[in-house]
Design brief:
alpha/beta, binds S-adenosyl-L-homocysteine
Length: about 375
């Protein structure tokens, strides 16, 4: 089976910070600043230091949409802040929120200061809410089944734009979200510095940050090996997921062009080294595609690949996208695949992807909107 993935990423195209720069915007976002920088900004606005703490509280514990809401700050201070920086609504202007009643999943589409669009998804499960955050506008890695990469990578998000997505989600929820996953649009390790900075800000105690535990913040990579190596040395308790999707180079090449650059022979040793160095277990994401990677042969190969070191496998039945011809396997096939892994000592879970009705696959809402903006016909399937 060939999925028409012709794109091959050449080595020069995948440095760690790979996205082209965005269009210049007039002002930085208030969410680009760390606490020291907020103190400096407060002083530059002619205010006393304690005002900076009040400002931080509005940002990270009250999730204010605009400087205008910060009523215990002097009016002149609010006006000076607005002259110098973008607030939440200016950093991420709400465009559309799509909800799905059955699962409670909500997808937020926001416009960035330079006019680009970004998606953030809220996923409730039991008493927890996970926020799926984007790290780039589009994606340069072109995985065959993923809607994010269809038009390539426009630019990386700034650190403030990444943090602001979580603040936006918190504002919508009326409280701090429980978990963060960098599984929205983009490749976090292709925007390494900004994503890591943003994760640290989400982790910083209130009111300097959002106070979300490091173990509740998950990075997900398609297999950018230099990023995995760098991440191994960060000394943080963030979680790592690796999108594997196939147990052999032959199959993985056909789904993920990144495998032509960092194939399993370099990816798996990097994952083992990460586990050894950090003592932390990687979750391997494995999207099941009918008749392609969901058979007993692939299950056996996956066991052979992963058995030498402790890990977890998260099986996801393919979420159909219009541009990919692969099909979702039956539940029975997915369960058989999971059971084989479990019997052979691999800790595996099977997740039903939630929120199909709200275009839950990465990039679908943004793509539908861009098509609509461009006046193109939006088909029923990719709407
Ligand atoms: N670039 C990162 C994070 C974004 S994608 C990465 O590749 O890990 C988040 C996860 O969703 C990845 O595991 C990705 O492979 C998966 N995914 C994307 N489109 C999908 C689809 N149509 N069905 C199932 N999983 C999908």
């Amino acid at each position: 089976m060939v999925f028409g993935v012709e794109t091959m990423i050449s080595p020069e195209e995948v440095p760690l910070e790979m996205a082209p720069p965005g269009k210049p915007v007039a002002k930085p976002s208030i969410f680009d600043l760390d606490s020291d920088e907020r103190v400096k900004l407060t002083e530059a606005c002619g205010e006393k230091g304690f005002r900076s703490r009040q400002l931080s509280e509005w940002l990270f514990t009250r999730y204010a949409g605009g400087f205008g809401e910060m009523l215990n700050l002097p009016k002149a201070f609010r006006a000076r802040l607005a002259e110098r920086c973008l607030d939440l609504d200016g950093t991420l202007t709400p465009v559309e929120t799509a909800g799905e009643a059955s699962s409670g999943t909500r997808k937020i589409l926001s416009r960035l200061a330079d006019g680009e669009l970004v998606e953030t998804v809220l996923i409730p499960a039991k008493d927890r809410v996970t926020v799926c955050v984007s790290s780039q506008v589009g994606c340069g890695f072109h995985c065959a089944f993923c809607a994010s990469g269809l038009n390539g990578c426009v630019r990386s998000l700034t650190r403030g734009e990444i943090v602001a997505q979580v603040v936006r989600a918190a504002r919508l929820l009326g409280r701090r979200p429980d978990r963060i996953v960098f599984m929205g649009i983009g490749e976090p390790f292709a925007n390494y510095d900004n994503t890591l900075w943003a994760a640290r800000r989400m982790n910083a105690p209130e009111p300097d940050g959002l106070g979300i535990g490091a173990r509740h913040i998950t990075f997900s990579t398609c297999g950018v090996v230099p990023g995995i190596k760098r991440f191994s040395g960060e000394g943080m308790q963030f979680e790592l997921s690796v999108s594997l999707h196939a147990p052999t180079n032959e199959l993985r090449d056909r789904l993920m062009p990144v495998n032509k650059h960092w194939n399993l022979d370099v990816l798996i040793p990097a994952c083992r080294a990460y586990t050894k160095q950090t003592g932390r277990i990687i979750t391997f994401e494995y999207t099941l595609v009918a008749g392609f990677n969901d058979g007993p042969e692939q299950a056996r190969e996956l066991v052979r690949l992963l058995r030498p070191f402790p890990s977890r496998v998260n099986l996801i039945p393919l979420n159909p996208v219009a541009e990919f011809s692969g099909k979702t396997p039956s539940i029975r096939t997915c369960e058989r695949f999971r059971d084989f892994l479990m019997r052979n000592g691999i800790n595996a879970t099977l997740r039903q992807s939630r929120g199909r009705g709200v275009n839950a696959s990465c990039g679908q809402l943004r793509r539908a909107r861009s098509l609509a903006d461009a006046g193109e016909r939006v088909t029923e399937q990719n709407r």
